[in-house]
Write a structure and sequence with these properties.
mainly beta; single chain; 5-stranded antiparallel sheet; elongated
């Protein structure tokens, strides 16, 4: 009746996790498995989160790195040990 009681659709929140299901955050260093980026850092770009190659400076948006089968990112997190 007049659309007063329609359910609102929730937006799908992306899961930012690598292929091993480790959570990813801005500033993390990862190894990219797409686009020949090599070692990358996660940065906040003009259009949201992006991967910036530490080797050639190329930037790729996070949504281009989603694995369709698992909805995880096609990257492997690199843990830096001190």
């Amino acid at each position: 009746m007049f659309g007063l009681f329609k359910k609102k659709k929730k937006k799908h929140q992306p899961v930012l996790a690598d292929l091993n299901n480790h959570p990813l955050h801005e500033g993390d260093v990862v190894e990219s498995l797409r686009y020949g980026l090599g070692k990358c850092r996660i940065i906040m770009g003009d259009k949201g989160l992006a991967y910036e190659s530490m080797e050639n400076g190329k930037q790729v948006s996070w949504h281009l790195m989603v694995d369709a089968a698992t909805d995880l990112q096609k990257v492997k997190k690199i843990t830096l040990k001190n």
